[in-house]
Amino acid sequence: MPLSLEEAAAIAAQKETTHTTARATVQGMEEHLYTAIPVLDHGFIRVIDYMGDDSAITQAARVSYGKGTKSVSNDEGLIRYLMRHWHSTPFEMCEVKLHVKLPVFVARQWIRHRTANVNEYSARYSILDREFYIPAPEHLAAQSSTNNQGRGDVLQGEEAQRVLDYLRDDSIRAYDHYEAMLGTEDQQGLARELARMNLPANIYTQWYWKVDLHNLFHFLRLRADAHAQYEIRVYAEAICDVVKDWVPAAYAAFEDYRLGGAQLSAKGVAALKRMLAGEQMDAEKAGMTKGEWREFEALLA
After folding, report:
1. Which residues of 97-133 are buried (b: 16+ CB within 10 A; e: fewer)?
2. CB-CB contact of 53 with 247 (8 Å)
3. Which of 57, 59, 115, 189 is most buried, judged by most C-beta within 10 A?
């Protein structure tokens, strides 16, 4: 289960507590507050706090541009203009704080996004739970033959079962030894900060992650992309659903220009113009490498 009975009770108590505030609130985010959204087999995300809404973005933009925005007659149009022209600071006026439970190897990818405030559960002071990410069979895949960072065909039959057995057995064995090293009433045991080094990368950790909307959109553009690793992509997709309820106009612009949009190089633009003029193009004519041409063709497809 993603949440223990104690955690569920604590969340229920938090949701029952109400406060009167004069600040801007968003009903969609109010409904998300504290509620755990399950991700993977034991993980979750939940909104702890947030600041700002769509109007905070346009408010900041109008202070910055003044009369320059008079031609933009509504907030949605202004937000689309800001997104289209890569104006980032107005989006920094909104922030969200998330509580995330995730496997350690996913956390190591996630933390590469350094433009956030993070506080992680410490295995120096506390004992980690016996919870590991074990992939569902449909997510067990071989190495891609064309992409060093990607997956190929899904493993089948005995090979898939062999891998699952290794993952499960090794995780259990490592945690058993971790517990044994911590010591009992009969032995002193190893310090927690040392015993943790024996744990596998699929064990779950937790952190609080606070980020502004501009940097969150950058995270989502990379991690909610279809080419992102599945295990981090499902977290990004869950966050997308939350952001959609928080800043609907900003998210719609982000979805249009970033998630659903595309960026072409100068060579790509030139090649596309020649193709529209009826010319048959290939990598050599376009002056692209094979990899660039493959990605260009995939983009057009």
Report:
1. bbbbbbbbbbbebbeebeebeeeeeebeeeebeebbb
2. yes
3. 57
The CA distance from 64 to 82, in Å, is: 12
The pTM is what?
A: 0.88
Fold of 1-133+202-261: Gyrase A; domain 2 (3.30.1360)
Residues known to be catalytic: 223
- CB crowding 206-222: b at 16 or more within 10 Å, else e: bbbbbbbbbbbbbbbbb
- The residue whose two tokens read 């113009």 is 273
Worst-scoring range by mean pLDDT, 147-151, 160-164, 208-212, 222-226? 147-151
Q: Binding-site residues, please?
A: 89, 109-114, 120-124, 196, 212-214, 218, 223
Rounded alpha-carbon distances, angstroms, from residue 300 to 24, 275, 280: 42, 11, 14
For the record, the structure tokens of 291 come out as 């990899």
Residue 10 or residue 53, greater confidence: 53
CA pair distance 33, 49, nearest whole angstrom: 7
**Every domain of the chain and the residues it spans:** 1-133+202-261, 136-200, 264-301
> What tokens appear for 10 in the block?
């604590």
How confident is the prediction for the chain on average, in pLDDT? 90
Asked whether 209 and 118 are in contact (CB, 8 A), the reply is yes
| CB atoms inside a 10 Å sphere around CB 91 | 26
Instruction: Give dist(CA 261, CA 247) in Å, integer.
Output: 19
